[in-house]
């Protein structure tokens, strides 16, 4: 009898696990969300190049002209190993981090302990949530504290003459993202998770509500766009670096819990 109960218990729990593992898995302790596969673009329209892309080609073909995704440009496996949930909590759990709201023009800032953020605030965001109601960790890093970690990061080796680089590190939940905005040129990569990008050239201001999230823009505005009004778009994975030129509009959507780092060239 006990054996039979045990059998049913096992059958029951393994079924629950199977149902969930269809949608969720963990990478580096961070939650990956396979059900957001539906939110990946049908066709990536940003050029993808391999590590054989030379610096001269990068400058001539992309630096001042258009975005590009470069695969295998650097090896950040050591940095990735330092960015697992366990390692980051161990090292930075008690440090304060500065969180921002994700609306375009009026970022609000709040300081919390990193552990508090990871364990209680880092969660998936749904479509109806306002950008101004979601707090997330991107940029505003205290370089004194995070410097030892950033030293282990291999930044993309392609510099733009006359600029210097500044890092912006963050972690955000599935469904979060920054709505359209622009600034100087830079690179961005995910260390864990996937991040979908939408980009428009400087002369083409996108239609969007600055208080709404990228997710709500994707569900409500994007489907109505004419073909000529579609952004360049692509989802980047670990091992890829996306380059965006100066003044290009861009919005991002984290499909998983993403650990990411950008290198701004200012
Ligand atoms: C996974 O993605 C779906 C679809 O966007 C979302 O509704 C859900 O909240 C996400 N779950 C987690 C745990 O990230
Ligand atoms: C950055 O961290 C250092 C060391 O913990 C601290 O002394 C300093 O006040 C912090 N800076 C800011 C702007 O929070
Ligand atoms: C966005 O929110 C701000 C502050 O709540 C408000 O003043 C502004 O009118 C809103 N903008 C739009 C386009 O809804």
From TrEMBL:
Pfam families to which the protein is assigned, alphabetical: Cupin_8
| Any GO CC annotation of this UniProt entry | nucleus
Domain of life, per lineage = Eukaryota
Q: Which GO terms describe its molecular function?
A: cis-regulatory region sequence-specific DNA binding
The residue range of the signal peptide is: 1-18
This protein's UniProt keywords: Signal
Residue ranges of every copy of the JmjC domain listed in the record: 132-266
The record's InterPro entries line, in alphabetical order, gives:
Cupin_8 (IPR041667), JmjC_dom (IPR003347), JMJD6_ArgDemeth/LysHydrox (IPR050910)
State the protein's name.
JmjC domain-containing protein 8 isoform X2
Record gene name: JMJD8
């Amino acid at each position: 009898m006990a054996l039979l109960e045990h059998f049913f218990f096992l059958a029951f729990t393994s079924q629950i696990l199977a149902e969930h593992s269809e949608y969720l898995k963990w990478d580096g302790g961070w939650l990956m969300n396979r059900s957001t596969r539906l939110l990946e673009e049908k066709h990536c329209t940003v050029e993808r190049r391999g590590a054989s892309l030379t610096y001269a080609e990068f400058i001539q073909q992309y630096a001042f002209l258009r975005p590009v995704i470069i695969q295998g440009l650097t090896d950040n496996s050591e940095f990735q190993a330092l960015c697992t949930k366990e390692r980051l909590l161990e090292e930075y759990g008690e440090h304060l981090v500065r969180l921002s709201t994700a609306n375009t023009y009026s970022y609000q800032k709040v300081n919390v302990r990193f552990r508090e953020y990871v364990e209680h605030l880092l969660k998936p965001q749904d479509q109806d949530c306002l950008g101004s109601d979601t707090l997330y960790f991107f940029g505003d890093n205290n370089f004194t504290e995070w410097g030892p970690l950033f030293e282990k990061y291999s930044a993309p080796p392609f510099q733009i003459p006359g600029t210097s680089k500044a890092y912006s590190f963050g972690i955000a939940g599935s469904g979060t993202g920054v709505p359209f905005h622009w600034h100087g040129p830079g690179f961005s990569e995910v260390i864990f998770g996937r991040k979908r990008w939408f980009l428009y050239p400087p002369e083409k201001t996108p239609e969007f509500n600055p208080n709404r999230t990228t997710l709500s823009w994707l569900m409500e505005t994007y489907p109505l766009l004419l073909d000529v009004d579609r952004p360049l778009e692509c989802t980047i994975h670990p091992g890829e670096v996306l380059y965006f030129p100066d003044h290009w509009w861009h919005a991002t959507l984290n499909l998983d819990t993403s650990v990411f780092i950008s290198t701004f060239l200012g």
